[in-house]
Amino acid sequence: MASVWEETDEWGPEKVLQVYDPDTGMKGVLVIDNTSTGPGKGGIRFAEGATPLEIFKLSRTMTWKCAAAGLPFGGAKGGIIADPNKVDRVAWVKSFAKMIKPYCPGQYIAATDIGTTELDMAIFAHEIGDMRACTGKPSELGGIPHELGTTGYGVTTALETALEVLLELNAIRIIRDNIKVSIQGFGNVGSFTAKFLDSSGIKVVAISDISGLVYNKDGLNIPRLMIDMKGKSMLSGLDGYTILNKNQIFEIDSDIFIPAAMGNVIVDDTVTKIIDHGVKIVVEAANLPTTKKADEYLNSNGVWVIPDFLANAGGVIGSFVEYQGRTEKEAFDLIRYKISKNIKNILTQAIMNGENPRVLALELSKQLVYRAMLLRKGAISVAREAYSRKDAISV
Asked: Which of 52, 67, 72, 236 has the maximum number of C-beta atoms within 10 A of its C-beta?
């Protein structure tokens, strides 16, 4: 099995910290990938199957995401390795915060992710002793909770902008008024994506989670579904719905597929299914949902992929607004501005030059980070030269 050390390159990671608390049994990982553009930004994933390698890959995605969004953050990610429903989550979050406190918020600023909530961020910030140590906090603590749907709003903005550009430049054949969307995942990101799409008049025909799938070829009643899901964690617990096998989400006839669950779901055996069922656009709401080989296959078969670090940047953009002490409205306004601008820029260039949008967007992000790395090295060299002069320091 590959390790983090086999993945190191000129970009990072700068630090990989594995921590263990014998009192609680807490096991955790912090990866600070690259801080050339600012302190590392990334959520804390609380999941039984989390590994240092997975956390590293997510931290690298954050490096590109923050650069693409033009934010003064680098990339990082935290991980607590356990099922949060099977341990004392308060004690584990407090322990993890205590262990990584020396790095917060100077080198790492946390946020919510899979398995963590705004209440966990409140615990984390209080244990660190600095409200700047994380974002996604409850509004009572000056936060802009991710539970408001900032990531889902960004995904919807990315989808709407992609449609606008692709239709305007005749890069896709699709009937705008009869678009069908399938969403894999109905957690925070998937549910709010469905909500915002429904509000904009775009039909969601299928939604799945770990327990099953709900489908209606004429469009799901999203407001009703969100009400029925209150207090429930699984679609399979709903009354009045026909629940299908969750893996059928790849076999639903739809124009747009949105992976909004875990990583590595669009792979060799699923990529052909979504193409065969008419998918023309994939909008990556989850992090790392598509393998490199599957992405190339989609691109070569005329399917447009809006990469994760562009499409799901709404959460980190909202975090930036919170970090500045600004309002929820300003967060949503900035999300729409930045994501629509980036999608228009990348897709227009990709169409005009016949390039893969992910490859193009990644190259632009790398250029921004590389420039910041050069500037940091230059500043250090200038300082070293100045201090080496006899008259550089006066007492």
From this structure: 67
